[in-house]
Amino acid sequence: MRLLTFLLIATAITSHAETCPASDTEYPVTKKMGNPLFVQFKSPMFECDSTGPLYTADPSAHVWDDGRLYIYASHDIEPPWGCDRMDRYHVFSTTDMVNWTDHGEILNSNDVKEQDGWGIDGWMWAPDCAYNPKDKNYYFFFPHVNEPLPWGGHDWRVGVAKSKYPDKDFKVTGYVKGAASLIDPCVFIDDDGQVYLYNGGGGQCKGARLDPDDWTRLAEEPHPMEGLVDFHEGTWINKINGKYYLSHADNHPGADGNRMRYAISDSPLGPWVDKGVILYPTGCGTSHGSIVEYKGQWYVFYHTSNYSGRGELRSVCFDPVRIDKDGTINVVENWGKPFKNAVRIDGKALIVEAEDYNRGGEHYAFHKFEIPDKKTKYRRDDTGIRPLNHGGHYVAGIKGKEWMRYSTEVFLPGKYNITLVIRASSPDSKIHLSVNGIDATGSISVPVSDRWLSVSLPAVDFDTDSRYIDLRVENGTIDIDRFIMVPSDNKNK
Ligand code: FUB
């Protein structure tokens, strides 16, 4: 999804109001869970006639004085309609990164209308929260559309709700006057107590001081953030060892999704110096995250659509991240554990059996799902591995958007010719191979056949940072037996 394709639906926007009656769940509710988080909690569906998993995105992570780590996330409502039904923010917290508490809904678009008289239904996007020590309130900042504009624009505001508590009783208290009409607010409080508001999307990122005595007002005109490379959206600010860090999603194209990058500066308002990618594409069209230190460990929070298989039904995830002594943030190692060994790329020809995809099944590796209708479970645990008559196994019936991941270790960088042993059972079946979540081959058509076929891919380049291969089925139904990799310069075979 490219966010400034807002050209859609000015009329449709207002016709999908949905406020569900209060849930019978007793909040807070705590469950032990791993990535992807929060799908183990319940959420009413859009029409409120049933419940489904709680889908969350855009996590803003904060550690407050009570020692808990809190996640302020947006809420993808099922069945989705792009991002226009997003609504009903929940707050989550933990003390051990294993047991997670859902504190329940804290705010919805109806509350904004009722309490402050503005806004349309849905369109409650990526929020943030900050604590104001002066008035001892938590301030929840949320991007919300005031009204659709003619010819597809949107009048975005940065709404503000406040509460004495981090997880409940938020009341809308207006919106930030003077803020640019952009999405994804992020609030940063510097060591000297000065508060900054950033927001941005569709290539523009702005930042400005907030009025210290009124957090619903900017103290100055927003400044464009200079020096960022390929900024898309999702600004997040940290201060680490005296340097300012701005992380954000880039515009990386293609089916695998965009990435998170970061930049540093000596000043909270830039100019910024880009330092590269910290999160490879997660297979959904958006990337949005936050970086936080908790109990001596740094983490990156982000979202994927791995659980649902649908780009607009996302789930928050987190992984530890290493920050070097010199301040470099390393790439988040979220590609999982190999089933056997990592694929060893050392200049020799090799065969990778399709069924040897990484362990994990959910977050990192083989992913299989179905979308029969909105009332049915969205995924099945069938691994799809079937025996071959002459021995060995293959992976059967891989459908559009399903994928398998293979960790790699590159000892000798170079180009490889890759041949898939594959067949399709439905016309228009297509696949691509990605390296580090980036499409490396383009879309490859797979012919319908009863027999196994050898389908050659364009040569793929591996460097020492190539950490995993994904086989991503784009369309149709495909079986894969294995793939064969041969160095393209014919040396060392
Ligand atoms: O979740 C809705 C929008 O998608 C967010 O505001 C963006 O950052 C992207 O994640």
From the spread of the alpha carbons, the general shape counts as globular
**Strand share of the residues?**
35-45%
How many individual helices?
2
Radius of gyration: 23 Å
Nearest-integer average pLDDT: 90
pLDDT < 50 stretches: 1-17, 372-381
The total strand number stands at 36
For the biggest sheet, the summary is:
7 strands, antiparallel
Distance between the termini: 42 Å
What small molecules does the structure contain? beta-L-arabinofuranose
Helix proportion range: under 10%
Structural class: mainly beta
What does this structure look like?
The protein is mostly beta strands and 493 residues long. It contains 2 helices and 36 strands. The strands form 8 sheets. Strands 25, 26, 27, 29, 33, 34 and 36 form a 7-stranded antiparallel β-sheet that branches. A hairpin with a 2-residue loop joins strand 17 and strand 18. The protein is globular. The N terminus is likely disordered. The structure holds beta-L-arabinofuranose (FUB). Beta-L-arabinofuranose binds next to strand 4 and strand 17.
Which labels suit this protein?
single chain, 493 residues, mainly beta, seven-stranded antiparallel sheet, 45% strand, globular, disordered N terminus, binds beta-L-arabinofuranose
Give the SSE map:
Elements: H1 10-13, E1 29-32, E2 42-44, E3 51-53, E4 55-63, E5 69-76, E6 89-94, E7 99-107, H2 109-116, E8 128-132, E9 137-148, E10 154-163, E11 171-175, E12 186-189, E13 195-201, E14 204-211, E15 214-218, E16 223-224, E17 233-240, E18 243-249, E19 260-265, E20 273-279, E21 290-294, E22 297-304, E23 315-320, E24 343-345, E25 350-353, E26 385-387, E27 393-399, E28 403-410, E29 414-424, E30 429-435, E31 438-439, E32 444-446, E33 453-456, E34 460-462, E35 468-475, E36 477-487
Parallel strand pairs: 24-28
Antiparallel strand pairs: 1-7, 2-3, 4-5, 5-6, 6-7, 8-9, 9-10, 10-11, 12-13, 13-14, 14-15, 14-16, 17-18, 18-19, 19-20, 21-22, 22-23, 25-36, 26-27, 27-36, 28-35, 29-33, 29-34, 29-36, 30-31, 30-32, 30-35
